[in-house]
Amino acid sequence: MLENALHYSRTLLTNTLIPGDSVIDATVGNGNDTVLLATLVGKNGMVYGFDLQEKAIEKTKEKLLLTGLFNQVMLFNQGHETIGSVLPQDTLIAGAIFNLGYLPNGDKTIITTGNTTLIAVKEILSRLRKGGLLLLVVYHGHNGGKEEKDAVLTYVQTLSQTDYTVLRYDFLNQKNNPPLLIAIEKK
Description:
Blueprint: H1 5-16, E1 22-25, H2 32-41, E2 46-50, H3 54-67, E3 73-76, H4 83-86, E4 93-100, H5 114-127, E5 128-138, H6 145-156, E6 164-169, E7 180-186
Parallel strand pairs: 1-2, 1-4, 2-3, 4-5
Antiparallel strand pairs: 5-7, 6-7
Helix pairs in contact: 5-6
């Protein structure tokens, strides 16, 4: 059975990350990916999590405390475009995930945008280790979603095939704008 974009992103993370890695959850949302990342990198790894919404940060903190994974996570109540000013300059990133759009069950007027997402993507790519993955799960069926999707797709198509492999994974015959996954691997 084919996995949807979200599940396939988690499969890729599980197959790539190892204990001790440093990773980024660029949109912590409800904390599910943050918990997965913290589990995969273990006690010696570090997860840097970003979200504009305090509600998302609080919900994620609760999940991390309940699972005993809080010590290897640093949460920032700010946009992912600030990654470059928060992470130490020498931090090598093994993986990063974005869930673009809005917070599920949250305010649908607070959305990610192509401009801020591309700032974060470029910063992460400059720090991504060889074999590392940057994953973007693009939810685009809302106001502003198509513009962000188009901006991200336009940018990733310009990445050198000498340095990166870029995969687009989505379903072509489904209704209601199912999310798509863009996976970027550094060679």
